[in-house]
Amino acid sequence: MSGSDNAVETRGRMIDRVLPPLIILCVVLAGWQGAVRLLDVPPWLLPAPTDVVDRLVKTSNLWYHTGLTVLEALAGFAVSAVLGVLLSAGIVHSRFLERGVFPYIIVSNAIPVVAILPLLTIWFGFGIAPKIMICTIISFFPVVTNTTRGLKAADRRVLEFMHSINATPWTIFYKVQLPSALPFIFAGFKIAASLALVGAVVAEFYSSDRGLGYLVITSATQLRTDLLFVSIVILAALGVILFSVFGQLERLVTRGEDAEKAK
Amino acid sequence: MTAAPDCIVLEDVALRYRTERGVIDALTGIDLTVAEGEFIALLGPTGCGKSSLLRLVSDLVAPTAGRVVVRGQPALAARRANEFGFVFQEPALLSWRTALGNVQLPLEVMNTPAAERVARCEQLLQSVGLLKFKDNYPHEMSGGMRQRVAIVRALAWKPSILLMDEPFSALDELTKSQLQDDLLDLWNAERKTVLFVTHNISEAVYLADRVVVMSPHPGRIKAVLPVKLPRPRTEALRETSEFLAHVREARDMLRS
Predict the structure, then answer these.
(1) d(CA B19, CA B169)
(2) Hey, which residues 193-222 in chain B have their CB within 8 Å of chain A?
(3) Residue from A158, A164, A170, A257 to probe the interface with B (highest B Cβ count within 10 Å)
(4) Are B79 and B168 part of one and the same domain?
(5) Side-chain-side CA neighbours of residue A187 (13 Å)
(6) Shared-domain flag, residues B165 and B79
(7) What is the pLDDT of residues B227-255, one digit of tens each?
(8) What is the mean pLDDT of residues B3-22?
């Protein structure tokens, strides 16, 4: 098959995948717009899609709020990604760590972050620090569990082979265990990044004068429903972007394994 | 046979596992002396401790009793000197590395300079007819090709002892006999000491100088059958009455 044929086929499949949801979206938006106009729904109850778009364009400090929330989420996620992978590496190399730490990881996951927020606010104030911590806490669990599972999934015989040629634990870790864990790690990252975004918004609900979470709360209390919709649309878009970026990375590192399983 | 020096000596070796369901005697009273350059087949049913024996020899597990001596020293010393090349039933390749990358792995671990590494590994792949597949990933190769890669991976740093754990049992008949002949060619050329685990009687007879027949529960050596068949061995040998006589004898030993 020639390259151009391939490109045509890929484009065809893209259209097949993108077109149906796009049509549905247009139908829903048109119905929404028509209903609002026909029934004369007041904008504080349900703004028309055009009102929302209008608000999106006109709100000047929107990108500041968005940027702040994204910064908090990504910073929190980055911290938990680094700490989580390091802790997992420790866990698979030490039975003591595994037995000693895992119960607390589970407990930390069981505590609702909303309950920790006031405490972090008392300790660290109303700035960005407690928000980043919440993002870290909420996204830590999927990173650790997935990475640990991935590191343990390394082929037992490959490990034996490495031992038979005197490979050091560090060599085994970065040449065998870590690469074979990558698909698991990225699956964990995908979940963790979405959770971090939730964490940032929730943290801003509680104590903030900026960020998308703050925007949601204030626009709701002031009945600026169009702005509320704008915030929700942006959050949805952010969630989708994060999910698909990490999904893409995950697919990249799993390509070989998938093909092998398909055999 | 001329008296070659001892390579591997097992003296009254036992291996006992403690599991949640109690104690399992994987091996008891193993006495075996393997000469330098000898090809030994370890033959027996599943659970007779054949694979454990390889792990004992290569110091991956320590015996609960007895001694494992390799060239006059504890097995640990031989492992430290990278004397063991391990091949498993499954190729156990790294799926994210190409054929060439997989063969290079042990040399990377041993810090061989890159240029030398690549040259050596390309030559090895050439020797098993896989040079043109050097950039293929494991999932892009057939089972036989993958096992060839696994075998040359175990030869990359020229270890003097090959430990093979049912390396051909997952392959189809045609590929299997091809790889058996390749292995014999290699052994003829380099005279490595080989411990070859199998549950296939004719494979054991075809390849080995001596067939060590084992039995399970607890794993032990039942009998040793010297194979008095001429070398080099070829396909035609399989049809001869001497070969079949050896196979029959080995089967009787297994059953008795």
Answers:
(1) 28
(2) none
(3) A164
(4) yes
(5) 12
(6) yes
(7) 888 878 888 888 888 888 888 888 888 88
(8) 82
Residue carrying structure tokens 């169009």: A226
Question: Same structural domain for residues B181 and B202?
Answer: yes
Q: Does residue B204 register a pLDDT over 80? A: yes
B80, B92, B96 member nearest A166 (Cβ):
B80
Residues from chain B contacting residue A180 (CB–CB below 8 Å): 94-96
Q: What residues make up the domain containing B29?
A: 6-83+159-255
User: Cα–Cα distance between B99 and B135 in angstroms, integer?
Assistant: 6
Q: Residue B11's domain is classified under what CATH number?
A: 3.40.50.300
Note whether A160 and A214 are same-domain residues: yes
Average pLDDT for B37-48: 86
- B79 close to A (CB below 8 A): yes
* Number of domains present in the structure of chain B: 2
Token pair for A47 = 């703004």
Q: Which residues of chain B neighbour A171 with C-beta distances below 8 Å?
A: 109
Per-residue pLDDT tens digits for B109-142: 888 888 888 888 888 888 888 888 888 888 888 8
Is residue B220 within 8 Å of B190, Cβ to Cβ?
no
pLDDT at A263: 39
- Cβ contact B92–A259 (<8 Å): no
Cβ within 8 Å, pair B60-A163 = yes
Share of chain A above pLDDT 90, in %: 38
Look at A126-130, A184-188, A242-246, B17-21 and tell me which has the smallest mean pLDDT.
B17-21
pLDDT mean over A63-71:
92
> In this complex, do B92 and A171 lie within 8 Å of one another by their Cβ atoms?
no
Report which DSSP code applies to B72. T
The domain boundary, picked from B158, B175, B210, lies at: B158
Q: How far is A178 from chain B (nearest CA, A)?
A: 11
> Which residue, B149, B105, B98, B164, is CA-closest to A167?
B105
A74 and A24 within one domain = no
Examine the domain organization and report whether A109 and A227 are in the same domain: yes
Q: Does A180 touch chain B (CB under 8 A)?
A: yes
Whether residue A29 is found in the same domain as residue A77: no
Cβ of residue B90 closer than 8 Å to a chain A Cβ: yes
Based on the structure, what is the number of domains in chain A?
2
Domain that holds residue A234: 44-262
Q: Residue A261: pLDDT above 70?
A: no
Q: Do A256 and B139 touch (CB under 8 A)?
A: yes
At A81, the pLDDT band (50, 70, 90 cuts) reads very high
Say which residues have a Cβ less than 8 Å from residue B225's Cβ, sequence separation at least 6. B210, B211, B213, B246, B249, B250, B253
Q: For residues B102 and B179, is the Cβ–Cβ distance under 8 A?
A: no
> What residues of chain A lie within 8 A of the CB of B110, using their CB?
165
A182 contacts on B by Cβ (under 8 Å): 96
- Residues A244, A192, single domain; the answer is yes
ipTM of the complex: 0.87
Out of B90, B95, B109, closest to residue A165 by CB: B109
Interatomic CA distance for residues A255 and B19, integer angstroms: 38
A227 and A152 in a single domain? The answer is yes
Domain identity same for A157 and A228: yes
Please tell me whether residues B42 and B153 are part of one structural domain.
no
Same structural domain, A19 and A74: no
Per-residue model confidence (pLDDT) at position A256: 53
Verify whether the Cβ–Cβ distance A163 to B140 is below 8 Å.
no
Q: To which residue do tokens 């060619």 refer?
A: B185
pLDDT at B95 (0 to 100)? 87
